[in-house]
């Protein structure tokens, strides 16, 4: 097999599920599988999307939440078979594609405006 044929074969094997559209500033809940020994369970991670990077099958997104007063960030690849579902909870209004400035904010200053939709 040539190099291009091998790359094409691997890309065909990777299946990207159909997730809702979201962007930086949106609040999402990601349900993902955790394997512990021979047991498998689902866990939810809810937070604000602080960045999206890449395109196509190698795209990733990073979510930030505050847990017990400590900021926790987690990066998820879209093509991961461990992701069960992604739910869009709130749409936020931000003016940046990468909202790293949230890392330095606490309390009410860290809030993001919610998008209003016309009926």
Give a structural overview.
- This protein is mostly beta strands and 119 residues long.
- The chain has 1 helix and 7 strands.
- The strands form 2 sheets. Strands 4-3-2-1-5 form a 5-stranded antiparallel sheet, with no helix packed on it.
- Strand 2 and strand 3 (60-67) form a beta hairpin.
- The longest helix has 11 residues, at 3-13.
- It is globular.
- The model has no long low-confidence stretch (mean pLDDT 87).
What key phrases describe this protein's structure?
5-stranded antiparallel beta sheet, single chain, mainly beta, globular
Q: Strands, helices and their partners?
A:
Blueprint: H1 3-13, E1 27-36, E2 39-53, E3 60-67, E4 70-77, E5 83-90, E6 92-93, E7 113-114
Largest sheet: 5 strands, antiparallel
Backbone structural class:
mainly beta
Radius of gyration: 17 Å
Q: Considering DSSP H and I runs of 4 or more, what fraction of the residues is helical?
A: under 10%
Poorly predicted ranges: none
User: Can you write the helix and strand succession as a string?
Assistant: HEEEEEEE
**What is the molecular shape?**
globular
Tell me the strand order in the biggest sheet. 4-3-2-1-5
Brief rundown of the structure:
It contains one helix and seven strands, in the order H-E-E-E-E-E-E-E.
